[in-house]
Design a protein that fits this description.
The chain contains 13 helices and 17 strands. The chain starts with a strand and ends with a helix. By secondary structure, the protein is α/β, with parallel strands linked by helices. Helix 1 packs parallel to helix 5 (157-175), helix 6 (193-204) packs across helix 7 (232-250) and helix 8 (262-272) packs parallel to helix 13. The structure holds adenosine-5'-triphosphate and magnesium ion. Magnesium ion binds next to loops.
Length: 423
């Protein structure tokens, strides 16, 4: 059972307006176990709209139109659906009378073109519009040998939502077979998408009843699993089973299996180990601290830290020897290590993290760092009572924002990995 949503309106083909109705409709249809397979946006053009309607009705079981039910010349949805399905329009006297009455109540005469809103497709049920004047229409019919449900809803979101709730959901729920959707998501950090796919595809391809999607971005890979079944339990059991198998394959690369963010996981792990954390950040300018402190309750395990941008502050706040900054350069393995160890000592934290790097663009400061490449970042981690901090050298690509974000992502992921080793 698949659905298509068609949003009619030329304004949504400009850079200025978005089709948000389809997001709402997708969520509602999913609740009934109906998967949205296609979304189309069409301008206010009779031929285009008729063509889109024809295609949608041929390939989807449920087709929902949004918009184009108003009284103006560019409101063409009724006519286009009629042409696509070979259905005639008849002017409904009851609707027409209601419209005349509404205008009369406001002591206005109804403009002639408003009567188009009373045009109803053959065989359609009229859906009342509680928040506006254009009624909707609901067609449940058979085309060829296939059952098709075609729904026409008004474009203004408050009208569309109220009409869906009051008129469509009950009809759909009563006629569609009972379906429930379950979802699960696995999240991984800093691992190539192709590698995730190569390792997991043999597993998820076996689950043809579960839809698997891989999303990549911002140093994170997400695997989404969606399954529709007759009962909640059945659907949940399928996605859980698949998620467990994939998790077993990817092992420690998976940082979250119930939606938690990387920051939340790091804080949770600190809590379980009764460890506190402090950070000294240069090129990330406090981004790591910002991400951690965005999580409610983070103050219990994240003590704080310092943004040590100038060389002098690396010494003052993170106890990096002046001599070391001068000879090795502020972007160096030695300085990153000293930052992690220094901030840990200075704050009394159990764990210290240090990040220093060149985010670019433009050449670095004169001195030992002058020839170092943009994207060179060092992330260091120091654990109390363990001797020298571990340092990882990174060569990140992209613009300043991307390098800063990825550096913070590496900082968090290394913390997670480091904490994993210390159960
Ligand atoms: P009206 O009687 O108001 O003309 P209509 O059914 O003809 O209603 P449209 O003319 O297509 O609907 O759209 C009316 C307004 O509703 C648009 O100006 C826009 O603000 C909003 N709208 C329409 N379609 C969408 C959509 N897909 N997502 C979000 N908003 C929408
Ligand atoms: Mg309109």
């Amino acid at each position: 059972m698949i659905a298509e949503i068609i949003a009619a309106g030329s304004e949504m083909l400009t850079p200025f307006r978005q089709d948000t109705n389809s997001l709402y409709l997708t969520a509602r249809l999913n609740e009934l176990g109906v998967q949205v397979a296609f979304k189309t946006i069409v301008g206010d053009n009779f031929e285009h709209l008729t063509g889109a309607a024809r295609i949608a009705i041929s390939r989807a079981d449920v087709v929902v139109f949004s918009g184009g039910l108003g009284p103006t010349e560019d409101d063409l949805t009724r006519e286009a659906v009629g042409a696509a399905m070979g259905l005639k329009l008849r002017r409904d006297t009851e609707i027409l009378t209601g419209m005349y009455k509404r205008f009369a109540a406001r002591r206005m005469t109804m403009p002639q073109n408003n009567s188009r809103q009373a045009d109803v497709l053959d065989g359609a049920e009229v859906l009342e519009n509680a928040n506006g004047s254009a009624p909707g229409q609901y067609i449940d019919t058979v085309v060829g040998r296939h059952r098709k449900i075609v729904i026409l809803l008004p474009g203004p979101p408050n009208e569309l939502k109220a009409m869906y709730e009051a008129e469509c959901r009950p009809r759909l729920a009563a006629t569609l077979p009972e379906r429930h959707m379950a979802r699960r998501m696995l999240r991984m950090a800093l691992i190539p998408e192709s590698q995730v796919d190569a390792r997991t595809a043999p597993i998820y391809k076996e689950y043809t009843d579960v839809e698997t999607t891989i999303l990549a971005g911002h140093g994170e890979i997400q695997l989404h699993f969606v399954c529709a079944k007759a009962s909640d339990e059945e659907a949940q059991a399928r996605v859980d089973e698949l998620a467990e198998k994939v998790e077993a394959e990817m092992g420690e690369a998976v940082f979250s299996s119930h939606g938690e963010s990387l920051e939340e996981v790091v804080l949770l792990m600190l809590g379980l180990r009764h460890m506190s954390l402090a950070s000294a950040e240069s090129c990330t300018g406090g981004l790591l601290a910002q991400r951690l402190t965005a999580v409610p309750g983070s103050s219990r395990y994240f003590l704080g830290g310092a943004v040590v941008y100038a060389d002098r502050l690396k010494t003052t706040f993170a106890e990096v020897p002046e001599e070391m900054v001068r000879t090795e350069g502020p972007v160096s393995e030695a300085v990153a290590r000293a930052m992690a160890e220094g901030i840990r000592r200075k704050t009394g934290a159990a764990v210290g993290v240090g990040i220093t790097g060149i985010a670019g663009p433009g050449p670095g400061a004169p001195g030992p760092d002058a020839d170092k490449p943009i994207g060179l970042v060092y992330v260091a981690m120091s654990f109390a009572g363990e001797g020298k901090a571990k340092v990882v050298e990174l060569n990140l690509t992209g613009d300043r924002e991307r390098i800063r974000l990825w550096a913070s992502q590496h900082g968090l992921e290394q913390l997670r990995r480091g904490l994993l080793e210390r159960t």
